[in-house]
Amino acid sequence: MSAPQYWKEKRVLFALEGVYGDDAGPNGAANAILAQDVTYKPMEGQDKERDLEQPGMSASGTIPTELHSTLSFTVDLSASGVAGTAPAWGPLLRACGVAETIAVGTSVTYTSVAQGHEAGTFHLNIDGTRYVMRGSRGKAELMLDAQDTPKIKFDFTGLFDLPSAVAPPTVDLLSWVEPLVVSHQNTPTFSIDSVDFVMKTAKLNLGNKVESRFLVGAERVLITDKSELFETTVEAKPLGDYNPFQKALAMAQVPVEMVHGTEAGKIVTLSLPTAQMQRPSIGQSQGVKEWPLRLVPRAAALNSQWSLTLT
After folding, report:
1. Could you give the 3-state DSSP secondary structure of residue 195?
2. Whole-prediction pTM value?
3. Contact between residue 72 and residue 83 where contact means Cβ atoms under 8 Å apart
């Protein structure tokens, strides 16, 4: 009897593709992912019923169609430690309909992009069995909650390949930088409409609509639309200091800015220049009144609804 294969013995590799659907051949030295909470579904799709007219009572069987794979995981949202050097998670975010702009020695900026979406190849090796996802595109959520490490949650969909027996690669994870806890000391700025707030939770959902499209002549995973949403919970203020109800009624578009990190090379700035205030709610935590707020990032110009800048 063969020995069991251990889930913990997994290596996740990812590289962007030069040609859509061509295996980018990620390797352990340059393309290893330091992932958390990995969930993999290797053979998603449909089972087409045959409905055969045959004597007796028995199943007709099915035919598998629209085969694809999904992979979900979380990574630390940390800058590279060197201003102008892209972080290890940069290629993953680029495969979620995001453009990367590098100012050498100064900054790396990520913004939404409406066309020319990149895609990539995953190699997931679990204790000697390699699973490959080509043509992968995904969804992403940026999560920055107080007293927790900032994270990016990814949900990818890719083309299905049969798994194969391949020896686990040796991986180099040194490019993944230890995260800074979101805190009063490490997160000097959180403001809405240029007003500083005490923040408990913050999340930006990029809102990608990811769909598989399998036709004769082409099988692809596409990002067909986007609908971003920013959600945060803050301590409530007197209405004379700030009135989110009035802002929501007026459909006001307000700036949101969050700066995390204080040292050069480790600073992450999330900016939503024109976010429409939605109807607020009221809650409490530890007896303190809070406002759960939802804001929709609006694009004043093409692809300007949000930016993530590392300096």
Report:
1. strand
2. 0.95
3. no
213 touches 219 (CB < 8 A): yes
Q: What is the mean pLDDT of the chain?
A: 97
Tell me if 232 sits within 8 A of 293, measured CB to CB.
yes
Q: Which residues lie across from 141 on neighbouring strands?
A: 153, 205
Return the structure tokens found at 223: 């990002």
Tokens of 77: 């949202």
* 248 contact partners, CB below 8 Å, separation of at least 6: 277, 278, 279, 280
13-27: pLDDT as tens digits: 999 999 999 999 999
Sign of the torsion formed by the C-alpha atoms of 303, 297, 183 and 186: positive
DSSP letter string, 231-273: EEEEE---TTT--HHHHHHTT-EEEEEEEE--STTS-EEEEEE
Coil, helix or strand at residue 91: helix
Question: What tokens were used for 274?
Answer: 């024109």
3-state secondary structure of 25: coil
Token digits for 236?
A: 């409530």
Q: Residues for the chain: how many in total? A: 311
